Amino acid sequence: MFDYEKLGLKMGLEIHQQLDTNQKLFCGCSCNLEDKKPDFNILRNLRPTQSELGEIDRAAFEEARRKLKFIYEAYNHDTCLVEADEEPPNPLNLQALELSLVIASLLNMKVVDEFYTMRKQVIDGSNTGGFQRTGLVATDGHLDTDYGKVIIENLCLEEDAARRIGHKKGAIVFRLDRLGIPLVEITTSPSMKHPQQVKEVAYQIGQVLRSTKVKRGIGTIRQDLNISIKDGARVEVKGVQDLDLMPQMVENEVQRQVELLEIRDELQNRNATVENGLYDVGGIFKDTKSKIISKSESVLAIKLNGFSGLIGREIQPGRRFGTELAGYAKKMGVSGIFHSDELPAYGISEVEVAAVFDFVGASDEDAFVLVADREEKAQNALQEVQRRAKIAINEIPEETRKALPDGNTEYLRPLPTASRMYVETDIPTIKISKELLSEIKSNLPELPKDKKIRIMEEYDLSEDLASQLVRVDKASDFEELMKEITIDPTTVASTLAYTLKELKRDGHDIDKLNIVIIKNTFNLLQEGKISKEAVPKILIGICEEGHSPEEAARKYDLIMLSEKEIEKIIHEIVSSNKKMIEERGSGAMGPLMGMAMKKLKGKAEGKLVNKLLKEKLQNKL
Amino acid sequence: MNYRGAARKFLESSGISIGDIIKITTNDVFYEGMLLDRADSKEEKNLVLKLDSGYNIGVDITEATIELVGKGEKPKIELPPLEIKEEDEKPNVSILSTGGTVASIIDYKTGAVHPAFTAEDFLRATPELLDYAMIKGEAIFNILSENMKPEYWVKLARSIADEVNNGAYGVVVAHGTDTMHYTSAALSFMLDTPVPVVLTGAQRSSDRPSSDAFLNLMSSVAAAKSDIAEVVVCMHATENDSYSYIHRGTKVRKMHTSRRDTFRSINTAPIAKVKEGKIKVVDKNLEYKERRDGPIKLRDSIEPKVAFIKSYPGIFNESIDYYVDKGYKGIVIEGTGLGHCPEDVIPSLERAVDSKIPVVMTSQCIYGRINMNVYSTGRKLISAGVISGLDMLSETAYVKLIWTLGQTEDLGEVARIMHTNIAGEIEDTSSLQHFLI
C-alpha cells in the first residue's frame, strides 16, 4: 500500500450517462441500438483542422497521422442525413436539455443563463463530423460524502459517439445507431484524495441519475477516472465499468507512476539518450525461426542508450515499461514490439540478438527495440517508441488510458488540449429562463436517500431492507406492487431486494421477471394458493422454463394443500413414528416437525403444520 | 461589437472590450473567461464568455458585477506565410478562390462560418496538393455564391484567362456550391479554353474535419492536370470520401440542399471519375474537348438584364409584363412539362417577343427535352415566337441567354445561337440511361 497523502494523490471523476429521450439530441431518430445487419456502409476520412484560436489540437493531430479510414454502418430507416453528416443538425432536443437541468438541480449546481452548443474536435472517427457536439449546462455543485464535500465542477449535455464495431481492410468500422443519443457528462473537481471516496461519489452520482429519466443497462453509463500524483502526470482512465474495481485501479496507476518516476531518475543517472536513427536489420533475420519476423516485409530497429534492464522492469502487475512503449507502437497499427530486455525469446535466437546489438552499435548498458511489419508502419511505430522513450527521460506524459478488466490501464492517446473546442454555428443558442428553472426545481424527483426514509416509514420496513431496495433500484417496483397487492411489505420487499439478486447470482436469467410476472406470483400467495417459501422456486421456474407463475407452481408441485390433505400427511407421519413418540413424548415434536416440513415444504404454511402436528401429538400422548 | 443597450453600457462603463479576460459575479456564482462578441446584434442582457474549459456560455448581467482580469489580445486567425519551393517538373495549377464553404473559416466577430480563407489557406489545410502540382493561389472574390452576379462571372473569366495565358497547366476555381452551376455554365460560354478549368466547392465547411473540401480539391487538381480541356465541375460522386465526378459545366446541377454528392449531370453522363488522383472516363461515347496548345479565347460580352421566371398554376400576366415594361432584354420562362405555361400568359409572352425581347422556354421537370409541338398550348407558344430551350437546363439556358444577348440583339440570331451547341449544353439525342443518376 502506498502513502497516498505523501504522494499527493488527487482524483476526479467524469461520468457519462445516456438520457432516456424519444429522439436524439440533434435529429428525430430514435435512441435505440440496432442488432440487425446494416443496410449500407459509408466510407469517410477525417482530418484535423484549425480551431477558432488557430491551433491544431495535439490529440487530433495524432489521430490524423494514423491516416485511418472510417466505415459507418447505416440503416435505411434508422439513419438520417444528420447522423451521416450529410445535413446540418436539427435544433437541440429540448427534452434532453430539461432532463439535464433536472440532474443539475439535484446536484446543487448553478445553471448557465444561456446554453451554447460547441464542437469538440474528436477525429478518431467516432463522430461523423469529426467533432462531438457538447454544451455546458451548469457548474459549481456539490455532494456530501463520508470523506467530506465533493465539488461537482461541470455538467455538460452532449451527443454520444458512434459505436465502434471493429476493423475492416485498414478501416475502423462504426455503427451510427448510438451516435447522437443525448448524454450528460458530470465532472467532479480533481480533489478527491482517497480511493474509497471516488467509489462512493461514483455510487452517489449514479443514484442521483437513476432517480431521473435516464437509460438503464450495460453501456448506458460510463465512468472515467482522473488520477495524478504530485511529481507525476494527470492521467484520464476511460471506461471504468466496475465501481468496486476503482480503488484497485487507483493503486495500480499510482504504482505505475511511482515506478516510471524511478525509471526516469535512473535514466537521468545513466545519462540515457534516444538516437533518432532507424536501422534496417532485416539481413540478420533472413533465416530466423521467429514466425512473426519471417512473415514480415521489413524488420527495423532503434537504439536506446542506457536503457538496458529498464524496459523489462515491471510497473504494474504483469505490465512492464516495455508494455508502455508497445502501447505507443500499436497506435501506428503494428501488433507489438520486441525489446532486448526480453530477448532471446519468441523464436529470436541469442546469435540474432547479439548480431542486432552489434549492428546498431549497442553496448551492455544500451537496449534496442525491434518492429517487424510493412516498412512504413514499422517506421511510424518505432518513431513513436522513440518519442515515448525520450519523454521517459524527463517526465511522465499526460495520457488518456483505457481501463482494463484486471485493474490495469493501457495507453489510448495523449490527453487532449483545451483548444479542441469551437462554437457549433448551426445551432442557435438557448436562453434558460428563471421561470423554467424554478418550475424544474419545484418538481424534482425524490432522491434515493429521501426515498429510503419515506418507504421505511410508510411500509414499516427495516432500514436495512429499505436501503437495499433503493440500492438495487427496486423501490419504485416495490411501491407499484404494494398498490395492487395486500401481502406484507417485508415479503415483497425482500423478494425484490434479495431474492432476485440471489437468483441472478445463481445464474438464472432474471430478465424475464418483469413487474407483471412478479405481481402474478404474489397474487397466488395472496389467494393462499402457494406458500411464502414457494415464491423463489416459482420464480426460478419462470426464468428457466418460461412458465407462467401458475404453471410453475403446478409443475414443481408447489400448490398449497388443503387442511384435510395436510392432516392426512401428518397422520401418516405420526403413525409411522409411534415408537419414537412413545419414547420421547412431547420431545418428538421437533423431529416430527422436521419430517413434516420436509414433505410439505412449499405446500403448506409452517404455522399450520405446527398447529396440526401439535394437536395430533397431544391426542396420541 | 454587437452588444447593444444595457450590455454595451455595462461593458463600456467597465472599460472592457472583446477579447479581454473578465470575471463576472452574480448572486450565487462567478465565471471567469474571455469576452466574446455576440453573433446576433440585438442582445442587451447576456454576455458571451469563453471559459478556460473551452466552453462558451451566456451570462445575464442584470444582477452581476464585472471585473477586468486581464486585457486580452483579440485572437486572430492568422498563420505564418507558406513557403512553396519552385519545382520545374510539376505542372503549374492555379487555384482561384471566390469564397463559399470550400474556403471558409469561423468568424470570431459573428461566430458564423464565413468565407475568409485565401487560396493559400487551402494549401495549409491540404498540403498534399503540393505533391501533385505547383500550386499558385489567388483570391478573386470573397463572397458567398448566392451573392454572385453576371458581372462577377466576367471578372472571373478574365482572371482565368490571365492564369492560362501566364502558363497555368490547369485552373481550379473554389466556389460556393449554391450557384456553382450558373458560374460553370457562364464560364463555359465565355471561355474557349485549351486547358481544364475546374470548379469545385464543399457541402460541409472546410473548418470541420469531415469536410468534403479535401477530396474535392485533390480531385480537382487531378482534373486540372487531365486532358479534359473544358469548364467542368468536380465534386463528390457519392456520399463516400472515395471518388469524384467531373461534370460538364453546362450539364450539371445542384440537386440536394446538403448532401456531398449534390451535383449531378443532367440529361448526360459525367465526363469522368477521379479516384486517388487518377482520371477514368465514364462513358467512352461521350466526347470532350482535349487539351491543346495555344491561347485561351475570351468571349465575355454579356447582357445581364435577363429575367428568369417560373411558371405555375395561377401565375399572373403582370409577372411577365413587369419585366417587359422595365426594359428587360430577355426572358427565360421555366415552364411545366414539355414546355408549357397557362394560356392566359401567352399574350404577355407574345407582347414581349413583339417588343424584340427573346423568350426562351425550359422545363421545371429538370430532366428531358422541350417539345412544344405536342399540345395546343405549346403550338400557341411557338407561334407567339417562344424559343425552345431544347434539353438545356433552365439555369444554363438563362446564363446562355445573358451571354447570347452580349453577342447580338437580333431576335433571329438569338434563336439561332440558342439552338447552336456552343459548350456541350445541347445533346442531339436523349439517351435512355440519363435519368436520375
What would you say this structure looks like, in words?
The complex is a heterodimer of chains A (621) and B (437). In chain A, 39% of the residues lie in helices and 21% in strands. Chain A has 621 residues and is of the alpha+beta class. Chain A has 4 domains: 19-189, no CATH class; 269-390, GAD-like domain (Gyrase A, domain 2); 448-555, no CATH class; 563-620, Arc Repressor Mutant, subunit A, CATH 1.10.10. In chain A, strands 1, 4, 6, 7, 8, 11, 12, 13, 21, 22 and 23 form an 11-stranded mixed β-sheet that branches. In chain A, strands 14, 15, 16, 19 and 20 form a 5-stranded antiparallel β-sheet that branches. A 4-stranded mixed β-sheet of chain A has the order 2-3-10-9, with no helix packed on it. In chain A, α7 (321-330) crosses α9, α18 (563-575) crosses α20 (589-600) and α20 crosses α21 (606-620). The model of chain A is unreliable at 51-55 (pLDDT under 50). The model of chain B is unreliable at 107-112 (pLDDT under 50). In chain B, the strands form 6 sheets. Chain B has an 8-stranded mixed β-sheet with strand order 9-6-10-12-13-14-17-18, with helices on both faces. Chain B has a 5-stranded antiparallel β-sheet with strand order 4-3-2-1-5. A 4-stranded parallel β-sheet of chain B has the order 20-21-22-23, with helices on both faces. In chain B, β21 (330-335), α8 (346-354) and β22 (359-363) form a beta-alpha-beta unit. Helix content of chain B is 24%, strand content 24%. Chain B is built from 11 helices and 23 strands. Classes of the chains: A alpha+beta (621), B alpha/beta (437). Chains A and B meet through β2, β5, β6, β7 and β23 of A and β3 and β4 of B. β5 (114-115) of chain A pairs antiparallel with β4 (56-60) of chain B.
